Amino acid sequence: MTTTTYRSPLLDRPGAAALQDPDSLLDATGVAWHYGDPLGEQRRAESGTIVVDRSQRRVVQVTGPDAAEFLNNLLSQKLLDVPVGYSAAALDLDIQGHILHHADVSRTEEGFLLDVPAGQFDTFLSFLQKMIFWSQVEIAEADLAVLSLLGAPVAVPEGAVVRDHGWRRDVLVPRATLAESVAALESAGADVAGLMAFTAERVRALEPELGADLDDKSIPHEVPAWIGRGEQPGAVHLEKGCYRGQETVARVENLGRSPRVLVMLQLDGSAPETPAPGAEIHGAAGGRAVGRLGTVVHDHDFGPIALAVIKRTALEQPLLVGDVAVMVDPASLPAERGEQAGRAAVDRLRGRG
Prior knowledge:
Residues 262-330 form the CAF17 C-terminal domain. The chain has 353 residues and is of the alpha+beta class.
């Protein structure tokens, strides 16, 4: 499979339409954006089950006796001693803690499967292969396709790898049997829906897509759901050993908070044009940009919505993207945590001075 030539067999279904937005930053090449009824496809996730073709994503397989330790040393997720069937997200960070890759991870009998947007695949695979050194691991692309189920549970094809993300279930099936696997899910009660329906749910779930919603300055704490706490595994485990970028994660966790944060925006639906992803966000009074617009999609309940990374100091002020008024959805605001232990210790030391 190559990113530029991939075309899902589901694009040959009646009504299937690919994303035609030239400004889109989404990983959407080769799959259907919708099948003729985009908002109706979203609604069916509330009354039943939809299956979304996300086979444009590409999958890395890591096997061998050192697979768990190898990945645990490189990524932000704790992967030592996890059982078969375990699933979570994981990040690859640079030395300053900026996010380079975001993968969904599954533990299988053979090792680990990690899938990423197609645009991240080559650099992610190259990074893993360059880090093998003396580790007893084998790393290669797995010829698997990702399907996502939203709504009520249905039976999945035998032998599929299943991941539970709370708001969705991912099903990994052999790419050669993609059409047959979707037909089996339809027989079990699922309706086929396009990537637009998935994207609307992803925005509402505050789950960013790296290339569309974050930039080269983004750090993990800008996405609060990615920080593992309590029963939430997130993408960053706060009690694991060293990995590249951990110092930034620990410093923000213990001493402060990220200057920016990911939120959901509601856009003025009466505007003649929807703002383009990547556009700057400004306060209504003007001045410097306070954020960056990410994924933009029409939701069947809210109308036009978007993800955006915004300075925390601007979260409660009127905002504009060009001439379009936008509002931070209150439900997307991050919950405030109590005083961090590290900050409290610093304040006590300063008080003694």
